[in-house]
Specification:
The structure holds two protein chains of two kinds. Chain A is an alpha+beta fold. Helix content of chain A is 45%, strand content 21%. Chain A folds into five domains: 131 residues, HPT domain (Four Helix Bundle (Hemerythrin (Met), subunit A), Up-down Bundle), CATH 1.20.120; 137 residues, Alpha-Beta Plaits (2-Layer Sandwich); 57 residues; 180 residues, 2-Layer Sandwich (Heat Shock Protein 90); 136 residues, OB fold (Dihydrolipoamide Acetyltransferase, E2P) (Beta Barrel). In chain A, the strands form five sheets. In chain A, strands 14-18-19-17-16-15 form a six-stranded mixed sheet. Chain A has a five-stranded mixed sheet with strand order 6-8-9-11-10. In chain A, strands 20-12-13-22-21 form a five-stranded mixed sheet. The radius of gyration of chain A is 34 Å and the shape is flat. By secondary structure, chain B is mainly beta. Chain B has a single domain, classed as OB fold (Dihydrolipoamide Acetyltransferase, E2P) (Beta Barrel), CATH 2.40.50.180. A five-stranded mixed sheet of chain B has the order 8-1-2-10-9, with no helix packed on it. The longest helix of chain B is centred in the middle third of the chain and has 4 residues. Chain B is globular, with a radius of gyration of 16 Å. In chain B, 34% of the residues are buried. Chains A and B meet through strand 21 and strand 22 of A and strand 4, strand 5 and strand 7 of B.
Chain lengths: 688, 161
């Protein structure tokens, strides 16, 4: 049977990356003094799955590399090696390396062989050092292993292999294993069917057989282990060297397999194997379930992991919808006027279900923000070591859900902000103590919902922003005039200007002054904004406000003649009637009006969009909507405000092209199209 | 387009429609649907022949008036005015667009080797958007290259046809 393995690659990569994340967080959580076995087990299992998977798909570089990691982890797991910070660091490095390798394979590019061998050597060196103090009895066990590994000593191997009942269900076929073994040397297979129940009790999917295998030839034990890799956790097996001269040894084993299994087997210990079994069964069954839907997907299309409960809700709702639909069609078939109430009821139900359905479909795109946050413990760990600072990271509100696109685009800006906080915000331990602060600095990453927005805050208790310094720097760089009067807020916003960096000394962490303006631009392309509050000596808070989803927007619909436009509600500051005496003309042309000490340009919508049907051309008759976009304010002159509504954003570019001043289109309740205004674009347009 | 590479006898179907009593044709496989005229939403700062955007079951579809595109006299839209919704493919990708025509007339099976090259009509008339010509009975059908005609990047500066 030949299967196109490529269709499972995507699943393998996803699982591997998840595994790597699990390993990483596990490693970071390891407490040197008191090592939690469960944590080590988790790390080991992840490494093991990656090794197994990559072996199956023929990514030998990955499986070889993981094998070394696994060996190291296995010794830690068995308590034969003490967990040291050095070892953890080497392992962390290997996790990174593995991630790079997998990414390279995924992108069909070449693996950086040098880095890989570097890490592999580091691992092997760590392995060779033999860790810390070894417990005495374990050492003996290790020697036994070594002895049995000795290739020259045995002309062959005897393998006692008794699968657990459920092994066949996980898709493992003993015949495949035997076939592979027979490629290594002469194989004799003896089946033991004493475990078979009678025919009427038999469950055909259970495996009641066990085997005794004798493999003759110059074979390494590890080669055999590799073949049994997949079923390791789903069988009891023992491998022992075949000794012709020692007949009774073989005899003893042949008679009673089980005790020998317990006695001879060293890795993994049967207890551990049993403990692992349930979780691993889950892991191996998962890909088969998922591949059904995934295999049809285009290679380039991104996939998303969705909580099953969300899907269940969706299915329930579709069920309800179908019921309502059949009810309605029944009413419609023989409609009489006395059924009007029934019809109205049905329609209102339909409306409710459609709305719920819409909500839950949107919900599917929502991911917990922990997808972004989870990388920060590692980042902070690495950076604080590098910078010689002591920093505690707190994550709050990791379960807050955001649209998938937002999650993806948020990650880079956030990394930048956290790096900045660590590098420029938090002081060195000595400096902190001198300032009367705790030695350990704190960085808090927090996410929460507020209104239709999600707010993400990066809070640090570092030295804060120095307004005077910011000002001096901005003047020095020629970003502001020397006599410019700035509010506190405006001063802090200076750091978002291109080419601004206050770090006295550039580090390789941050400080090249290319960051913050990019951060702000990224956030703005997501339709959000970013603010800074800071207190000198106490710390800074950077808040990012983002819309929950990019597909739906709160809009204010406005009328200009017969045309309808949507202004994003978030960009409206206020709407007002103005009188002639508020209006000034600059050079007889550009109109501005005075709003609380600020002169704002007036953008006449009917002029820049050439709306012929516009009735109100006198500023007194219409309304001025004050809007703000990317730091630019202006007053839009419109005929009327209509109403607020949530609109679904549709692309105008899909079938047409970009239109200046318009960011997209939407469909109004009556089925007609309305264009969504792009405020910065409008300002640009009116300046032309 | 030349016909030399086309194997003799292969047949394509063309939908023909009328503009100012002239007959035009386009490949029927490009046609997605034909619908009556309904009011559309104006798209600002676009050439006059872009009538606006239509909501086609949730997709925003621009509508092009071919009379205006070809600098013919404008007419008022009547109940028989049709919008032919096409799916065109060009360098900028796949687009769904509608064209306004006076009326849809017929579907013709045209042998490709019977398509004549569009004649050189002098520099005043642009034949870039023509695929060729076909004579049926007494009528001359101008076959359009809609992929080129409806390329959003070509919407500026079309002077004559």
């Amino acid at each position: 049977m030949s299967i196109d393995m490529a269709q499972f690659h995507q699943v393998f990569f996803e699982e591997s990356f998840e595994g790597l994340d699990a390993m990483e967080s596990g490693l970071l959580n390891l407490d040197m003094g008191d090592v939690d076995d469960e944590v080590i087990n988790t790390i080991f299992r992840a490494a093991h799955s990656i090794k197994g998977g990559s072996g199956t798909f023929g990514f030998t570089a990955v499986s070889d590399f993981t094998h070394v990691m696994e060996t190291l982890l296995d010794e830690m797991r068995d308590g034969r090696r003490q967990v040291t910070q050095a070892a953890v660091n080497v392992l962390l490095g290997s996790v990174d390396c593995l991630r790079e390798m997998l990414t390279a394979i995924q992108d069909d590019s070449d693996i950086d062989v040098e880095t890989v061998s570097e890490h592999q050597q580091a691992l092997e060196k760590e392995l060779a050092q033999g860790g810390g103090a070894l417990a005495q009895p374990v050492e003996v066990a290790a020697e036994v292993v070594e002895e049995s590994v000795d290739p020259g000593a045995s002309p062959g191997w005897e393998i006692a292999f008794s699968p657990h009942l459920g092994m066949l269900r996980t898709g493992n076929d003993p015949v495949r294993i035997f076939r592979e073994l027979s490629e290594l040397g002469d194989l004799e297979v003896t089946v033991d069917f004493r475990g078979m129940p009678s025919l009427n009790e038999i469950e055909p999917e259970d495996c009641h057989l066990s085997w005794k295998l004798i493999l003759k030839g110059d074979v390494q034990e590890s080669e055999i282990n590799d073949i049994f890799d997949w079923v390791e956790d789903e069988c009891d097996m023992a491998i022992s060297p075949l000794r012709d001269e020692n007949g009774d040894y073989i005899e003893a084993q042949a008679i009673d397999v089980e005790p020998v299994v317990e006695a001879v087997k060293q890795q993994p210990t049967p207890v551990a194997a049993k403990a692992d079994a349930p979780t691993d069964v889950n892991k191996t069954t998962k890909p088969t379930v998922k591949s059904d839907s995934k295999s049809k997907d285009n290679k380039s299309s991104g996939s998303i992991r969705v909580d099953t409960s969300k899907i269940d809700t969706l299915i329930n709702m579709v069920g309800e919808l179908v019921i309502t639909q059949s009810m309605l069609s029944l009413v419609g078939e023989h409609f009489e006027i006395n059924k009007l109430d029934q019809l109205k009821n049905g329609l209102s139900q339909l409306e409710r279900h459609t709305r719920e359905l819409q909500e839950s479909v949107m919900n599917i795109r929502m991911l917990p923000i922990s997808f972004v946050f989870s990388r920060f413990p590692r980042l902070v760990h690495d950076l604080s070591t590098k910078l010689g600072k002591k920093i505690d990271l707190k994550l709050v509100g990791e379960q807050t859900e955001v649209d998938k696109t937002v999650v993806e685009l948020l990650s880079d800006p956030l990394v930048h902000l956290v790096r900045n906080s660590l590098d420029h915000g938090i002081e060195m331990p000595a400096e902190r103590l001198a300032a009367g602060k705790p030695e350990n600095g704190t960085v808090i990453l927090e996410a929460y919902h507020r209104g239709g927005n999600i707010v993400i805050e990066v809070v640090d208790d570092g030295k804060g922003l120095d307004k005077e310094k910011l000002r001096a720097k901005a003047i020095e760089k020629g970003l502001i005039e020397e006599d410019a009067i700035l509010t506190d807020k405006q001063t802090y916003e200076l750091i978002f200007m291109p080419g601004f960096s206050t770090a006295e000394q550039l580090t390789d962490v941050s400080g090249r002054g290319v960051g913050m303006d990019v951060v702000r631009r990224n956030i703005q392309t997501l339709g959000g904004n970013i603010e800074i509050i800071s207190e000198l000596g106490k710390g800074s808070t950077i808040s990012i406000h983002l819309p929950l989803t990019l597909a739906i927007l709160d809009g204010q619909s406005i009328a200009v003649g017969d045309e309808r436009f949507i202004v994003p509600l978030g960009s409206i500051i206020e709407s007002l009637n103005i009188t002639d005496d508020q209006v000034n003309k600059v050079a007889g042309k550009g109109e501005t009006f005075l709003l609380r000490d600020e002169y704002l340009p007036i953008v006449r919508m009917h002029e820049i969009f050439q709306v012929e049907s516009a009735q109100r051309t006198n500023l007194m008759d219409g309304l001025v909507v004050v809007v703000e976009g990317q730091g630019v304010r202006c007053g839009l002159f419109v005929d009327d405000l209509l109403g607020q509504q949530q609109v679904v954003i549709k692309s105008l570019e899909a079938n047409y092209r970009k239109v200046e001043g318009v960011s997209g289109a939407t469909i109004l309740g009556d089925g007609s199209v309305a264009l969504i205004l792009d405020i910065p674009g409008l300002v640009r347009l009116s300046n032309q | 387009m030349t016909n030399e590479t086309v194997t003799t006898g292969s047949v394509e179907q063309f939908l023909t429609f009328e503009l100012e009593s002239e007959v035009y044709g386009l490949e029927i496989l490009k046609v997605q649907e034909i619908r009556g005229w309904e009011p559309v939403r104006d798209i600002p700062n676009t050439p006059d022949y872009i009538k606006g955007a239509l909501n086609l079951r949730g997709a925003i579809v621009p509508i092009v008036d071919l009379r205006e595109r070809f600098n013919m006299t404008k007419t008022d839209y009547s109940p028989v005015t049709v919008v032919i919704v096409l799916c065109v493919e060009n360098e900028s990708g796949k687009h769904v667009m509608g064209i306004v025509a006076d009326a849809v007339s017929d579907v013709l099976d045209i042998k490709l080797n019977e398509i004549k090259d569009s004649p050189n009509l002098g520099s005043k008339i642009d034949t870039r958007y023509m695929r060729g010509m076909y004579v049926t009975g007494e009528k001359l059908v101008m076959l359009l290259n809609v992929d080129k005609l409806l390329d959003p990047n070509e919407f500026e500066g079309l002077e004559g046809f």
